[in-house]
Fold this sequence. Notes:
By secondary structure, the chain is mainly β. It is built from two helices and 21 strands. The protein has helices at 2-5, 151-154, and strands at residues 8-11, 14-18, 29-38, 41-49, 66-74, 79-87, 95-107, 110-119, 126-133, 141-142, 168-172, 175-180, 185-190, 197-204, 209-218, 221-229, 234-241, 249-255, 267-271, 274-281, 297-303.
Amino acid sequence: SQKEQQVEETTDSVKTFVFAGNPLVRDKFTADPAPMVHDGRLYLYVGHDEYYEGQDTASGGKEFNITEWLCYSTDDMKTWTDHGSVLKPTDFKWAVGEAWASQVVEKDGKFYYYTTAQGGEPYVGKCVGVAVSDSPTGPFKDAIGKPLVSDDMTDNGARGWWNDIDPTVLIDGDDAWLCWGNGTCFLAKLKPNMTEIDGEIEVIDLPRYVEGPWLHKKGDIYYLTYASIGKGQETISYATAPSMKGPWTPRGELTGPAENSFTIHPGIIEFNGEWYLFYHNASQEIDGHKGAIGRRSVCVDTLRYDADGLMLPVRQTSG
Ligand code: FUB
């Protein structure tokens, strides 16, 4: 089985495994990959897709049942350390659950975990929260005791269910930019403290935008990569700009749809001189449980650029 191809070892409570081709993680369903490089090591944060026996999706008719975020790390893209659960939505006292997509960034020796959680009263919709730690593997603590972004800021309190999800952060010199959103792609500057929005929230108009934005920069080019709607399933598309103020030029699709999962979610990073696209699909069966919309598996493939800096289409590989 796929699981047997992956050598697992546990020594002194440190669990490691060797990458055996996609999917990367073979013992749990994982989704919404968010890579970060710090001190020569790549850290990968993911949501843990849990499920209930006998259901293709999650409990109570919900598509997802994600109650924690997990962290993995590597220094060579081959041997990975499993750091286990590093944050739960219930670590935010304003949140009631649903650990949707995230990104972690480092600034001045602190690690900021921007993420999505379901708000409890008075925050009825999904919210963007921020937790902070002195270490990339936690423990992470709620940084501000309230959502960083909630529905009253983006939907006039109309309680849009999913407006405020999937944060991505780009630190660019002295500036830090936060981008997020389902259905609408929002962009705002962060104050130097990384925990407050600075100024107006803007909307970026992108073709077929659905969710899952990911910001990165290479040379002088800014890239905004996102889940777009293709032929009834999400694909990954992107746009480029000469500055974070735009204008954003659509550059088409980076990938086709992900096998079996409906959603796909980009996480792009340079590490040891190579560029990588992390994403998820639902190709994997674990212990007799087939992949499904809420039983996804994180994958990684190399990413290449042409001479003009445009990203070349990525072929999704399997192990
Ligand atoms: O994992 C829950 C949601 O599915 C994420 O927030 C979206 O990006 C999609 O991957």
